C-alpha cells in the first residue's frame, strides 16, 4: 500500500515532535520539511533522514506532492501556511491555537471549506489516554452531567523565556484545557472571568506569569483553570497537568504530575493503570485515519474558534477585572 506523504511546516520544538511521531507511523512517511531557518532545516534533515527540505512552502507544494501537512509555526503565523496548504489541496493538522484573532481563524475556516480539505487542530489532550478516558466516561453517561471542574497546566519558567513574550501562557497552555473542558461541558458558555498575576515573567517579558480563568456555563456549571509558566527549573516534570471533573453521578481526577488517575461513582472507585503517553503518536494516527477515510477530526475548526473566543474573553476580563459574556 502506498504510504501517506506528510510534510511538516515549522520544525521548531513541536515540529520536531511531529517528525518523530509521524516517522514512527507504519502507514506514512515524512517526505518533506519546510522552515525559513536553514540551519534548523539541515539539522532536522540530518537527524531524521528527511528526503526533501524547503525554505519556501509554495515551492514545497509545487515540487513535492503531499497528502497532508502539519503546520507548527508560531501562533500568529498560522493563517498564511494554512491558506497555502488549502490551495494545494492537502489535509491539514494545525497546531493550537487556531490563530490569535477571530479574523484569522475565520479566514482559515473559509479557506479549508472552500478547498474541501480537512482541518484538524493539535488539541493534544484529546489524545492523552488518561484525559481521553475521562472524556469517554462523560460521553457514556457514566458520571452524569458535568457540573464542576478544576484544571491546572504549568511549565517551568525557562519555557516562558524560550517563547520570549511572543504569546500569553493562556494561548500557549490554557487553550488545551479550554478545548478539553468544552468537549465535556459543551458550547453553551455564559461568561468567562479571568485574573492574571504579573511577577518575574511579566517584569522581564511583558506577559502575565499566570492566569486563573473561571468559565461559567448557562447550566450553572463552573470550571476553574489555572495556567502558569512559573514552575522552578528543579521541577522534574516537563509539564504539570491536572484535571478534576465532577459530574452529577461521579467524578474523575487525573494528575499526571502526581501520576494518578481515578474515576469514582457511588458504587466504585477505579484507578486505571497509567499509560504516561504524551499522545502525539495517537494524534498522528488520528490525522492519518482522517486522510485515509471519511473520519472527521475530533477537534476541527469549530473547536479551534470556540477555544480562541474563550481565550480572548479571558484576556479582556483579566484587563477589565469583570466577567465577560461569551457566545459560542
Ligand atoms: N500541542 C502542543 O503540545 C504544543 C507544544 C508546543 C507548541 N505548540 C504550538 O506549536 C506552534 C509552534 O510552537 P514551537 O514552540 O514549536 O515554536 P518554535 O519557535 O520552536 O518553532 C517554530 C518554527 O517555525 C518556523 N517558522 C516560522 N514561520 C514560518 C513559516 N512561515 N514557514 C515555515 N517555517 C516557519 C521557525 O523558523 C521555527 O523553526 C505554536 O503554535 C505553539 O503554540 C503546541
From TrEMBL:
Domain Gfo/Idh/MocA-like oxidoreductase N-terminal: 4-122
Domain Gfo/Idh/MocA-like oxidoreductase C-terminal: 173-326
Pfam families (UniProt xref): GFO_IDH_MocA (PF01408), GFO_IDH_MocA_C (PF02894)
MF GO annotations: nucleotide binding
Organism superkingdom: Bacteria
Family: Belongs to the Gfo/Idh/MocA family.
Name of this protein: Gfo/Idh/MocA family oxidoreductase
Taxonomic placement: Bacteria, Bacillati, Bacillota, Bacilli, Bacillales
